[in-house]
Specification:
disordered C terminus; mainly alpha
């Protein structure tokens, strides 16, 4: 017997809130480790622990048989997209304030709206298109195109990394909704963690000895390609926490988008913005500059408008379909 729609929606919201909270912890811990360890080592440790946690959930949800899928290619594509999304974002937070990188990443819902037109065949009206444009103006303001390159704290390409992360995440969410009809959340988490492990090992084989960077290399490049080192005393617990966190994130977000419509749960992902500001200030002493506050406000307003508008359209369509039956 399946849960009632309202109960499924409530569960979806609870799972997305749990996932977003764990993401905020994850981003803060990775930024903390970024000055000493390479990204691929952090990802490998996190995903190795995370996949063990996910396999426990697989046993709870039905055993190893649920790992079978009729769409291995789509799951592989989803895994690659989420790896690209995570790694571009993590490279960015190594040198950007946490709140700024997170705010730029929240262009993802705007990308989802645009992608729904060619990928899902949805019709997007002028109001939502206007909101998307308004949100991207906020992204542009945060890029500070009027500033001289020397006046920026980071390279302009680094400022674009969270936007690239948002785009690949948007593609991933579209696939999650499509694949979640047949796949359990724990199985989808295992596929993602497996992809992370394979990519991290590939980085290790190519750059694990640190030969591709020097002390003069940009900080973001050093974070991506520096040599592996044994964890310093106390850091092993941080790695363990990252791994458990990764398992919770992968399961929670997959479960959220399986249980409820994206228009219902996605607005709650914006809880990540105040959390990023909080951790950025408490742990790293960073507060957003005025351009970032303006961008945050515009992106937040645009994203929430888009989701509320989609929700209204869905309810109106449902009423029309009900009337047409009588």
């Amino acid at each position: 017997m399946t849960a009632a729609p309202s109960n499924r929606a409530a569960l979806g919201v609870l799972f997305v809130l749990l996932g977003v909270f764990c993401i905020s912890i994850n981003d803060m811990l990775i930024k903390r480790l970024s000055g000493d360890y390479p990204l691929h080592q952090i990802v490998f440790a996190r995903s190795t622990i995370g996949i063990l946690f996910s396999l426990i959930l697989v046993q709870i949800e039905g055993g190893l048989r649920i790992l079978k899928t009729r769409h291995p290619g789509l799951h592989l594509l989803r895994g690659i997209l989420i790896v690209l999304s995570n790694m571009t974002f993590f490279v960015a937070i190594a040198v950007l304030p946490l709140a700024e990188a997170t705010a730029l990443f929240f262009a993802a819902p705007l990308f989802i709206t645009l992608l729904s037109i060619p990928v899902l065949g949805e019709k997007v009206g002028p109001l939502r298109i206007g909101a998307v444009i308004f949100g991207f103006v906020g992204v542009l303001i945060m890029q500070r195109p009027w500033a001289e390159a020397d006046a920026l704290e980071v390279n302009r390409l680094v400022l674009l990394l969270p936007v690239l992360s948002a785009l690949t995440y948007a593609f991933n969410q579209v696939l999650t909704r499509k694949l979640g009809v047949e796949s359990k959340a724990s199985a989808m988490a295992v596929y993602i963690q497996s992809t992370f492990i394979i990519v991290a090992l590939g980085f290790y084989l190519i750059a694990g000895d640190g030969r591709l960077v020097t002390d003069e290399s940009p900080a973001s490049l050093q974070f991506l390609l520096r040599a592996w080192i044994w964890p310093q005393p106390g850091d092993e617990w941080v790695f363990l926490g990252l791994g458990i966190n990764a398992g919770i994130i992968g399961y929670s977000l997959s479960q959220a988008y399986r249980l409820a419509d994206a228009a219902t749960v996605a607005p709650f992902e914006y809880v990540g913005l105040p959390l990023a500001v909080f951790w950025g200030f408490v742990i790293f002493g960073d507060l957003p500059m005025i351009e970032v506050w303006i961008g945050i406000t515009m992106i937040l307003a645009a994203g929430l408008f888009v989701f509320l508008r989609e929700h209204q359209k869905a309810k109106a369509l449902a009423r029309t379909e009900v009337k047409s039956r009588y």
